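To whoever is on call:

I kicked off a structure prediction for a single chain this morning and the downstream step that reads the tokens threw a length-mismatch warning. I double-checked the sequence; it's 120 residues and nothing unusual in it as far as I can see. Pasting both halves so you can look.
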Amino acid sequence: MKGKLIAIFCAVLLAGCVQGPRSPSINANGAIKWANGFSEEMHISESGGTLTFAAPQGLFASGGGITIFSRIDSARNGSCEHYYSEGAVKTRMQICDGGEVRLIVEGQVVNVGSLAKYTY
């Protein structure tokens, strides 16, 4: 009986020491608040040419990594800029000057939201 208690205690102690995969860290300077309730922090490059998301929660990737959206310079129309995901080319994002964001997968709008840029 004493041996079983020691074994259970050791198993619990070891389980508490196990760490899951660490998500990458980015210096977030903006975020998107999605209509479905998710908020995603991101790093907007100084030129605005890339948007980097760390460990997205199911919106862009399966977590644990980063997702980079690159601006399509030739696709600017009116007050909106278009970005494509470097990991999934059929995933696009449209960001307009007023902060409106559209996430587009294979030509279909799958989510909308609003962009916030942090000021320090």
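Update from on-call: the warning came from a stale cache, not from the record. Cleared it. Sanity check on the structure: Residues 48 and 71 are 8 Å apart (CA to CA).
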